[in-house]
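Exercise (ungraded).
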Amino acid sequence: MKEKFYQYIQNLQDTITSKIEEIDGVSKFREDLWERPEGGGGRTRVIENGDVFEKGGVNISGVHGALPKAMQAYFKVGEVDFFACGLSLVLHPKNPMVPTVHANWRYFEMYDGDGNIVDSWFGGGQDLTPYYLFDEDAKHFHQVCKSSCDKHSADFYPLYKKKCDEYFYNAHRGEGRGVGGLFFDYCKATDDRSMEEWYDFVTEIGNSFLEAYIPIVEQRKDLAYTEMQKDWQEIRRGRYVEFNLVHDKGTLFGLKTNGRIESILMSLPPNVQWRYDHQPEPDSEEARLLEIFKKPVDWV
Amino acid sequence: MKEKFYQYIQNLQDTITSKIEEIDGVSKFREDLWERPEGGGGRTRVIENGDVFEKGGVNISGVHGALPKAMQAYFKVGEVDFFACGLSLVLHPKNPMVPTVHANWRYFEMYDGDGNIVDSWFGGGQDLTPYYLFDEDAKHFHQVCKSSCDKHSADFYPLYKKKCDEYFYNAHRGEGRGVGGLFFDYCKATDDRSMEEWYDFVTEIGNSFLEAYIPIVEQRKDLAYTEMQKDWQEIRRGRYVEFNLVHDKGTLFGLKTNGRIESILMSLPPNVQWRYDHQPEPDSEEARLLEIFKKPVDWV
């Protein structure tokens, strides 16, 4: 399974970065291959200063060895060996009318002293963070998420949509990071569903990513915008930074377990503003966005 | 003691904000008075878009009531009442040749069921974060810190300088936030030193703040700088954000105990950049700065 899934994310990284370069038309991804001293490594691809994408990363990694202390405590296990691999992406468009997107698909194994798998699971998700909200974009994104989920279980979309709203939440601001999407974790073999079936589910979601996001980019990337709207995007990106550095478990784990810092922090936006007590004009598009982020919406 | 120290920080806030406005010459502090639903409140003063200061806050607060759950766990106490007050300031200058400064002086009391003080202490410190380092600025700042400490104990400066280097450290980057200063906490009454004497020490440091920082501002604020140097300042400000959101206990406590978010996050810089794997030119002033941040320096 680990070889099969790593092969899958390698191919998916190629597919996604090709499409992003094609749409951007100007910038190309820079590739960095890196090795983890304790075992494994990754292939980081970052695009910057594009015509459509101001900054973005589409990274894969596969790491293994002794489970770091901090993760032993988190998973409530002793000294065990592990393997983890995944694809993580964040794309920060230049035009504030185009939403930021994040996605991640990952696989984890833990071993006993003889190298037998004692536990394994998939996790992942994808979510959308608009700066100016076109309702039909949120509906389209969620519709693709739902259609992909429904092929596997009618329970998945409502469950993973809810988990996404709960996870990507800036508790200190009382607002969601965006309009959500899907979030799932600890997808393990049960009587009802084998690891093969979970693989089919996770790769279905991964395969649907471009369909979920790219039509939105194509629709919005050439819309006109003002300097004030760009400022609003940069202020909202501040909330993105706050979520990733204060609340996001993946980021904090990476920072505390000697992960490759630049690959982890590629998620941070290129230009960000913090203004004291910034409040949008009443009844503006900006005020409407904040109102919507206060409470999850059923988009489909 | 609590009335006396609160009176002191009220006066110090006036003194500092007057001086900052005088040097800035253009912008004035905006004042927000706020109340904490559970007891107490504060006086937040923020300056933005000045000629010298791009953004800064000089805030006081005095809060009391039942100790929040998260702090009970931190202090390893049960359900007790508390009082806490302090002045916190961060100033982000426009000119990258002028360092950012942070300072904080605070007082804490805990009570038994009858309202008797069962524990009380002072804490605080001040530290400097340059973007371009003039060694004499770091020396001047530390010299003022040392002189103020030495009036109370020859042990204080080496001890609190070291604590500062240890605390303001971006462990995930392997670099200090800046060139340090002083950091002290849990300064409690002992056989050797009464709370009155701690009060004298803490207020000595508070009184020395303008002497430590203002001559540096005056010396550097009119120096010419390039757009590239401004970019470097904004990239380094990203490290400031990383420290405050990932490592700073005060910030995280505030965010997790329903503090006044805008007063806490006034510390975040106005314009910030994150570029993927940004590396300064070898042998440049920027490279020298990074080198110096890797290991604490004895400035005096």
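Further reading is listed at the end of the chapter. For now, observe: The two ends of chain B are 33 Å apart (CA to CA). The interface with chain A takes residues 30, 32, 46, 48, 55, 57, 172-173, 238, 241-242, 245-246, 252, 255-256, 261-262, 265-266, 268-277 of chain B (CB under 8 Å).
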